[in-house]
Records
---
Amino acid sequence: QVQLVESGGGLVQAGDSLRLSCAASGRIFSTYSIGWFRQAPGQEREFVAAFSWRGDNTYYADSVKGRFTISRDNAKNTVYLQMTSLKPEDTAVYYCGPVKGYENALNVWGQGTLVTVSS
């Protein structure tokens, strides 16, 4: 069974930092690269960051490059998203998921975690 559990969201001010966590089931963590997506109010879900398929590289959406960092703890089957210099336009529900390119490989999503950045 595929399980994805996101956590760490909250209400912060512009310029603050926040770290999100994604706990993934062992099967999906070992089979797929895990990435982050987000969906702002009234907008479609979009890609944010991910590891390459081999796991030896990372790639980011232009809007977050230089501010967000994806990392992982293989022993905990957990992927993190460190977000710095947050902007109001980063406000969204953040999801993690198995990645293929810039898409969710299985169209499987967790419940998401809400990040609200006030100006």
Note: The helical segments are 26-31.
---
Amino acid sequence: VQLQASGGGLVQPGGSLRLSCVASGSFFSMDIEGWYRQAPGKQRELVATISSGGITNYAAFVKGRFTISRDNAKTSVYLQMNSLKSEDTAVYYCKASIDGAVKWGQGTLVTVSS
């Protein structure tokens, strides 16, 4: 089973990026829970989650700027990031529960800089 995160890159302050997390492979149960991020020298922190029922939760520092969503098949989760700030610079990871075990994607680097 693979959890592939993509969509990161270099963007100027105020810009936008859309991250994708796609699960592939064979599994009995899979739930992509959401996105976390880890900036250099800091601990990994929650950015946004989405429940199997579609209920979303956001960290205070991204509310109103980021939107988490998923596809109908529930094998992909997206993070639309608008009004990016330099402090959003981090490696972004998606997290999933697959067959009862926690699995992390490999991370995608987001750099916000002019």
Note: The radius of gyration is 13 Å.
---
Amino acid sequence: QVQLVESGGGLVQTGESLRLSCVGSGATFSNYVTGWFSQAPGKEREFVARINWSSGGTKYADSVKGRFTISTDNAKSTMALQMDSLKPEDTATYYCNAENKYTGANYWGQGTQVTVSS
């Protein structure tokens, strides 16, 4: 059973930084594309960033390009999201996601809250 556990959320002020982590277990993550999604109150869950564990290829939402950086530590089965220059509109619950490239099986973490005050 694949499990994803996020950590690192919190309350910060505009312009500050946070680093989110997602620790995975129960899978060979080189077979996965993993990423981060955010969901603000009353809104749909939306894509933030993703990374291919085997190729290292990344993709970002336009709203976070140049501010957020996604990375992996393959040895520790950990994915991180470095969030710099945070804005109030980044306030949301952030979810870790893993999708198997071959089966399409999709897994979510429980989420971590990020709040950016103005």
Note: The first strand starts at residue 3 and ends at 7.
---
Amino acid sequence: VQLQASGGGLVQAGGSLKLSCAASGSGFMINYVGWYRQAPGKQRDLVAGIYSAGGTVYADSVKDRFTISRDNAKNTVFLQMSSLKLEDTAVYYCRAGPDSNQYGPSTWGQGTLVTVSS
């Protein structure tokens, strides 16, 4: 499976942005797809993830602001980001794997840059 992330851009604080992670090739119906982000000088952290059964996981910092969803017919996972803050600025990556452990078996998409301005 290959992952293609898109939807990043420049947005003002308080605004919204929607990221997409489109999968191609075989094997999209894997157990877990998640979004991770890495800000300059910081480690890459989990933002949100969704399991094939529908369960979701969110970082505390984005709960109630971000929503992850998937469209199996389109082989795409979305991350709707609202009430964006300056600290949400980062490169966002989508990842597929058996679970949310980013250090386990993984397929990564290329990053998409989200910049939140004041």
Note: The CA atoms of residues 37 and 92 lie 4 Å apart.
